[in-house]
């Protein structure tokens, strides 16, 4: 091999090595740029967007929970109101229908007194198996409907016991018969008022009125 050929070969190898070196440097720069981008994390704008989205999700979940809780509380209160009204209707209606005399012992019509003939209410749950029920008195003492009973002819009325709680008002209106005698009233109109469920519930939606006839007077 001549000297000129050796020189040309060396120049060719040198040029090839230079190109390879430049290519490696470019590749190294690209890798460094990619690594720097990955290690840099999210930008400030991306973080703010993520925070806003997270806040909206939390607010939506909170609003849904609050709405569900309010709806549940309302349904629960309505169920309790319905149950209280059912108990009042069943008990008072039966006591009125089987009575022989009814008196309203208060000017504001919050007390209803009823008496019974001996044997009409024998073995009554109020008295047990030992005596007959002779007298029942309902009275409203806010926020409760109270009851008193008398089973012994020689005894007085029992102490007041709470029958229903959570009532705003109870009214007993005894309808007189043609003679104008209170004790011979044919009907008792009973009005029950419950507390508001939710803000500004109108009175007509929480006031219930029903009328009960005395069975003995109607049949005679």
From TrEMBL:
Please report the name of this protein according to its UniProt entry: N-terminal methylation site-containing protein
PROSITE patterns per record: PROKAR_NTER_METHYL (PS00409)
Q: Does the keyword Membrane apply?
A: yes
Organism equals Halomonas daqiaonensis
| Segments for region (Disordered) | 1-34
Keywords for the protein's UniProt record, in alphabetical order: Membrane, Transmembrane, Transmembrane helix
Highest taxon listed in the record's lineage: Bacteria
Report the transmembrane regions from the record.
47-66
Q: Where is the composition biased (Basic residues)?
A: 19-32
Q: Name one Pfam family in it.
A: N_methyl
Against InterPro entries, the record matches this protein to:
N_methyl_site (IPR012902)
């Amino acid at each position: 091999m001549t000297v000129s050929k050796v020189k040309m070969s060396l120049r060719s190898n040198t040029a090839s090595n230079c190109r390879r070196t430049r290519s490696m440097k470019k590749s190294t720069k690209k890798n460094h740029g990619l690594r720097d981008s990955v290690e840099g994390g999210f930008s400030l704008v991306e973080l703010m967007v993520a925070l806003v989205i997270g806040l909206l999700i939390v607010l939506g979940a909170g609003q849904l929970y609050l709405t569900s809780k309010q709806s549940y509380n309302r349904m629960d209160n309505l169920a309790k109101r319905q149950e209280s009204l059912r108990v009042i209707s069943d008990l008072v209606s039966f006591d009125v229908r089987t009575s022989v005399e009814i008196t309203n012992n208060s000017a504001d019509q919050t007390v209803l007194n009823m008496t019974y003939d001996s044997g009409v209410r024998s073995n009554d749950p109020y008295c047990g198996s030992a005596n007959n029920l002779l007298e029942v008195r309902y009275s409203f003492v806010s926020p409760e409907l109270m009851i008193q009973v008398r089973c012994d002819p020689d005894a007085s009325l029992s102490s007041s016991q709470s029958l229903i709680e959570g009532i705003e008002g109870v009214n007993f209106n005894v309808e007189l018969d043609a003679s104008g005698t209170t004790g011979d009233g044919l009907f008792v109109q009973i009005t029950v008022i419950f507390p508001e469920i939710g803000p500004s519930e109108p009175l007509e939606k929480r006031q219930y009125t029903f009328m009960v006839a005395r069975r003995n007077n109607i049949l005679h």
